[in-house]
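Standup notes, structure subgroup. Blocker cleared on the alpha-L-rhamnopyranose input:
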Amino acid sequence: MKLPSRRATAFAALVLSGAMALSACGGDDGDSGGSGGGGGGGGDSLTMLPKNLGNPYFDTSTAGAEEAAEELGISIEEVGPEQASPDAQVQYINTAAQQGVAGLIVSANDPTAICDAINEARDAGTKVVTFDSDTSPDCRDLFVNQATAEGIAAKQLELIADQIGGSGEIAILSASANATNQNAWIEMMEAELESNPDYADIELVDIVYGDDEEQKSFDETEALLQNHPNLKGIISPTTVGIAAAADYLSTSDAKGKVALTGLGTPNQMRPYVENGTVEAFALWNPGDLGYLATYATKALVDGDITGEEGDTFEAGKLGEFTVEADGVVVLGEPFVFNADNIGDFDF
Ligand code: RAM
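Run returned:
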């Protein structure tokens, strides 16, 4: 497993360079779709388009992308909307196409809503790589996946089952209702709950959506507890959702009674692990994800790979990767953070 070997110093450098990159971009949410900065010049320039700006998870993935771009001697510019809504990314994709950037790296808010815009960009010669949250496979060149959906789903169920003693009502607090990644994980968790005898006594009673907004996620957590007085656990497969839910639980009567797990960043979750609100949660290294996506995009731009199954490419410090079926490259396995190891990480 790659994650534990990268320790605090490297992560701190990544987070710092990410913060600098973001302040340079100024959180552009204007009509231009982001025309300043170092990207936008065609040639070997890349555009990085997360689901939305202002999410520490994507700050870290962009920092990883910046690190890779520097190693590769190319420029990369982050642009993105304030809200992770289905159509919000279209204008940024159009701008990238008009600028003639060599590559676009995008975490999709919706599997199909951005496909027309992506196809226009691809027709104009831009290579399009999804990372974190995919589009439908036919409208991108490659998807850089953080871990298999099965692995992510299984890990979260293992964690919640362990934390509620194997039985009781659980609910899911997700991101936006159209998010490709969360919906894939939820579908697999539902299937696993149905079929795995270990989970026969666990009942999924609700799925709610916080839209990757802190306040909405906080309010949805409160509503879940009111609507389901017997709730024993919450899975939040989003870094925004789990942090907001932990914030709510930490000052409520439910602290220590209703378990919370899912996918979180160590920096956001540290206080809640330390004060006993949360026992354990999972994630991968978003910095490595952005780094890998940038190397993969450069390999496509250079024509070293086409996105065919079996293609291989080098990704700097992460080593060699192979393209799998449907044009997917997998970073690794999800990693579990708890009170024993959370101090080792800074992102
Ligand atoms: C949020 C976003 C992102 C997801 C993580 C786990 O930051 O929804 O897409 O991968 O959570």
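Discussed briefly. Confidence is low (pLDDT under 50) at residues 1-41.
Next: hand off to the docking folks.
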